[in-house]
Amino acid sequence: MTQHVKSYRTDSEQATYDLGKLLAQQLRAGDVVLLYGSIGAGKSVMARAIGDALRVSRWSGSPTFSLVHEYQTIPRFYHVDLYRLSSGEVAELGLDEYAQNDSILAIEWADRAPDLLGDLSTGRTVSIELAYSGEDSREVQISGLPALLAEPAVPVENGR
Ligand SMILES: Nc1ncnc2c1ncn2[C@@H]1O[C@H](COP(=O)(O)OP(=O)(O)OP(=O)(O)O)[C@@H](O)[C@H]1O
Ligand SMILES: [Mg+2]
């Protein structure tokens, strides 16, 4: 499959959320979404947008002590945060249990075990990298979706 990589710049939390919702329209059961980026980059904003697009009725916030939040959406949605884990601990977590072909799994701090997580999906792996480009602006790079996103309501940079 041809890998499309597309870069966006968002200038507010809302713009990142909107981009996440747009992206979520292209997700399907079996997808694993890897979220990369430093503290406050907007990984949780993206995860929330995906959850909302899947019609999560009560958002549980960011997984901290529980590590994994499960939502009874269709397809089922799992939201994981690996922040406090080493790659060894990630391996022990058994994430393959959540990466099933009837669910969507979104993983924050995918940097913790990129090699392991790249092989997790039974379907597609979508990577979203968020980086600061100013206090309220972020560079968002999306790869792994076969089609380019429809024109979002945010400034678009040339893809690489
Ligand atoms: N363009 C932007 N996109 C996303 N968030 C933004 C943007 N500009 C400012 N923000 C702010 O940055 C913060 C992003 O928080 P978020 O919890 O999504 O980050 P995170 O990457 O999940 O961090 P953590 O590593 O702590 O989990 C929010 O406070 C949000 O209001
Ligand atoms: Mg977060």
Give short descriptive properties of this protein:
alpha/beta, Rossmann fold, seven-stranded mixed β-sheet, binds adenosine-5'-triphosphate
Topology of this protein?
Elements: E1 5-10, H1 13-24, E2 32-36, H2 43-53, E3 68-71, E4 76-81, H3 87-92, E5 103-108, H4 114-118, E6 125-132, E7 138-143
Parallel strand pairs: 2-5, 2-6, 4-5
Antiparallel strand pairs: 1-7, 3-4, 6-7
Helix pairs in contact: 1-2
The structure holds adenosine-5'-triphosphate and magnesium ion.
Question: Can you tell me about this structure?
Answer:
This protein is α/β, with parallel strands linked by helices. The protein is built from four helices and seven strands, in the order E-H-E-H-E-E-H-E-H-E-E. It has a seven-stranded mixed β-sheet, with helices on one face. Strand 3 (68-71) and strand 4 (76-81) form a beta hairpin. Helix 1 (13-24) crosses helix 2 (43-53). The radius of gyration is 14 Å and the shape is globular. The two termini are 16 Å apart. The structure holds adenosine-5'-triphosphate and magnesium ion. Magnesium ion binds at residues 43-44, 62, 108.
